[in-house]
């Protein structure tokens, strides 16, 4: 840590960890319901658990991204944040909006549109909150001593993410148009601008951890985010195959989605190559694990597994089945959860002054959560393929098929327990680092 | 080898071009001659039905047009499959509906609300889904 204001990041990360834990709990509720144990139905029906599970994912990742920005931007711009006080105001308002939304979901207060369940009045608060955040980040950047590509890409990602929240607020009477523009938010976030954010964080971490020249890393950053947009924007078409819009999207979506894995492949190759090239061996091994892991697992989860059901001919059968959940879990874990855990692992020792770079607990957290998540992905995948064959090929009734897949959810729950153990260890590590302190403000090697 | 300047041009150029194509295709696919979203048949009952669908987050369990959660059945072509009477019974029941043991919240809709939701599903059934409807619903009539 070089600047005092970077400490703000710690509290965003702490909020992140809290919401992440809650997200996992609601995931378990859903897993049990799928396995045939929906004992909580009276209090937390499936649709509530589902809304909480996916929205918490979005909020904890956003909180992590915001924390990352508060940590990275001062260091890249070489000056303190313009206002630490406002950053805390922003943090608290984010937490308040999140809590109202999550509690509201338990009382039928929502907007029933997949992933965008936050009720309309709260949407406006989200907009104000994000504007405040962007104001702080962008003024810091433009008042700063230098404007690096890493900082620009990260800020651009955050700015576009904010702008793209708006199409989700347009009112439509038609379910088709509603869906169409909902994907402008959801798809263009996760397969577009969030990748810019991921790329920005990844490039910052690689510069710090490998010591490879900034110019080299930032050049490749442009190529990767270029590939992301080139494939991802028109790749939105893969959500438009069967929702009631023109057949043109079958072709456009098919071709450009097939290119989407390239961006992730480039990201994985880039990270591994920079690591190999790097002469400096940074002592923070755990951060390096998470960083390289994010690049590699995102290629498998988002790139390969996405490709597995993105062609129109396949998607005709897998659209709206558990196959989507299979791809979704590993994609989000690899691309976004792991990069947030990476920046936390990197920045925490710098903010707290406790250099817990290497520990059995930290390594166990990494391997158990990864193996657990891969196991969950396989369980979802098998259940999804079974569902596709029985329901869509053999034309069996939906509920009869669901009975057949219950056993896969038992496997899922076992793997999820391993995953949970890993994350618990990670959070214990987080807590053991203690609070951030000004004494950590030293001119260290990083 | 690519210079940093060229890499940036690739990023900015690619982004602008694909965004423009994306917006162009959006306009194209909603233009009068290409539109297959069945918008012209939306009635007030359909709009009220959609509102009920959203207010109760039905998509948190069901799928519609293949979108939603994967806990409860796909509801595209559900009227063809089950008939209006069955659907009305499910929507208005005061106790949890639990076919095969998987429970649905007992919403206890009024007869008018049930009619609105049925109008909404009926409208959905007439959208041209590029063949998806015949996959999820073998019993559905093939002529949309």
TrEMBL record, chain A:
Organism expressing this protein natively: Flavivirga spongiicola
Protein name listed in UniProt: Cbb3-type cytochrome c oxidase subunit I
Main location as per UniProt: membrane
Keyword terms: Electron transport, Heme, Iron, Membrane, Metal-binding, Respiratory chain, Transmembrane, Transmembrane helix, Transport
TM spans (from-to): 12-37, 57-74, 86-104, 124-142, 149-166, 186-207, 219-242, 248-275, 287-310, 330-349, 370-389, 409-428
Subcellular location: Membrane
InterPro entries: Cyt_c_oxase-like_su1_dom, Cyt_c_oxase-like_su1_sf, Cyt_C_Oxase_1, Cyt_c_Oxase_su1_BS
Keyword Protein transport attributed: no
Domain Cytochrome oxidase subunit I profile stretches: 8-446
Source lineage: Bacteria, Pseudomonadati, Bacteroidota, Flavobacteriia, Flavobacteriales
Similarity annotation: Belongs to the heme-copper respiratory oxidase family.
Pfam families named among the record's database cross-references: COX1
Topology relative to the membrane: Multi-pass membrane protein
UniProtKB/TrEMBL annotation, chain B:
Transmembrane segments annotated in the record for this chain: 9-30
Pfam families cross-referenced by the UniProt entry: Cytochrom_C
Record's protein name: Cytochrome c
Key words, A-Z: Heme, Iron, Membrane, Metal-binding, Transmembrane, Transmembrane helix
Source lineage: Bacteria, Pseudomonadati, Bacteroidota, Flavobacteriia, Flavobacteriales
Tree of life domain: Bacteria
Residue ranges annotated for the Cytochrome c domain, each copy included: 44-125
Keyword Protein biosynthesis: no
